[in-house]
Amino acid sequence: MIPLVRHPFLTLGIVIFLAITVLIVFRLSTGAKADTKKSRLITVGVVSPLRQDLDIRLAYTADISPNQVVNIFSRVDGYIAKLHVDKGDFVRTNQLLLEIDHTDYRHAVNQARANLSSAKARVSQQDAAVRSAKLTFDRMQILIKEQFVSQQDLDNAQVNLDAARAAHEALQAQVSQMEVALAQAETSLAYSYIRAPFPGYIAERNLDIGAYVTSATASTSTMSRGIMSLHDINTVRVLIEVVERDIPMVKIGQKAELRAEAYSDQVFEGTVTRIVQALNRSTRTMTVEIDLPNRDRRLKGGMFARVEVMVTTHHQALQIPIDAVSRLEDTQYVYIVREGKTQRVSVEIGAHNSNRVEILKGLTGDEQVVVSGKDLVQDGTPVQTQPLTKS
């Protein structure tokens, strides 16, 4: 002890060395415990592949359109005298929508009727002249046999009869003209009462009482807004643009499902009714029309919708959740659990719906496929499994 007392610095060095040694041993022991904790198994969620029918659907977004839309114009000139409907009103077929001032048109009808009556009276008068000329001619035929009259008298009677008949035909033609004029006047009068061509809702009203309308607008400007706009929404239609590669799968009569933003919890069913047999050169797509019955009129023109067309069904297809598939460049693969370790398996996928994908090659159907936790493992990673609920 005396040498150590005599050398205090040596004693201090020995103490420091012993302290460092103890600290290193303690750190090593605690580090080993930490490593033991870190080496515990990863838990992954797994499912077994499902074998059942898989509906193949094509999804699109589109706007809902009324089955029929018409802008109401006037076929006669005049001022709007009465409006019987307004925006939002539901109208039936042939219901009166508005009236154009028809004072002049009533006068035209009355004038045409008077002209027709006058023409018919002249025809009746000429009927009497024809009968008189016919009697004279018949009498001359009898008298000439007995030589009481000359041939000249008979010829004159014949000429008078022919002239009377010609005048009668001319007056009868005037009657026909007057009948046509009356029909035209009555038609113009009828056109001053504008009626609904089909049942629907008044979507727009652009003019008020007193506004002047003309038939020239309807005949020369098909894009004009018109007096009002009528929409038929008992049936609505959706136009989707199908890309070129999907065209062979879409056929008339296929069922479609529509979800509107306004009714997100309801599915509306429709049918593919028309296919435009030509592609748009700029977009390389083909227009397909889907009709949907809308008797409760809940769907409105202009609504935004998501549409799915069921084009075919793969029977007894092997399916897994689409979240289980990973991609590396052009290769798709999944992780399965075999003997407590993960194994990477390359797969070939087929069709898919919203949350499941068809497996064409790579799986047999009795594997445990990793869905949750697949990003935490590699090929050969020890894991423990937890079954997930199938969906």
Give start-end ranges of low-pLDDT stretches: 32-38, 219-223
Strand content: 35-45%
Using the CA coordinates, give the radius of gyration: 47 Å
Biggest β-sheet: strands ordered side by side in the sheet: 2-9-12-11-10-13
Shape: elongated
Number of DSSP E strands: 19
- Helix percentage: 25-40%
How would you state the average pLDDT, rounded? 87
N- and C-termini, Cα separation: 80 Å
* Count of helical stretches: 5
Main structural class: alpha+beta
Order of helices and strands: HHEEEEEHHEEEHEEEEEEEEEEE
User: What's the story with the biggest beta sheet?
Assistant: 6 strands, antiparallel, barrel
Q: How many domains would you count in the coordinates?
A: 4
Short summary of the structure?
The chain has 391 residues and is an alpha+beta fold.
Written overview of the protein:
With 391 residues, the chain is an alpha+beta fold. The chain has four domains: 44-54 and 315-387, conserved putative lor/sdh protein from methanococcus maripaludis s2 fold (Beta Barrel); 59-65 and 234-314, Beta Barrel (Elongation Factor Tu (Ef-tu), domain 3); 74-98 and 193-226, RNA polymerase II/Efflux pump adaptor protein, barrel-sandwich hybrid domain (OB fold (Dihydrolipoamide Acetyltransferase, E2P), Beta Barrel), CATH 2.40.50.100; 103-191. Helices cover 32% and strands 39% of the residues. It has helices spanning 2-6, 8-38, 103-145, 151-191, 215-220; strands at residues 42-47, 50-72, 78-83, 90-91, 96-100, 193-195, 200-205, 212-213, 228-243, 255-260, 268-280, 285-293, 304-321, 326-328, 331-338, 341-352, 356-361, 369-372, 383-387. The chain has a six-stranded antiparallel β-barrel. Strands 6-5-3-8 form a four-stranded antiparallel β-sheet. A hairpin with a 4-residue loop joins strand 11 and strand 12. Helix 3 runs antiparallel to helix 4 (151-191). It starts with a helix and ends with a strand.
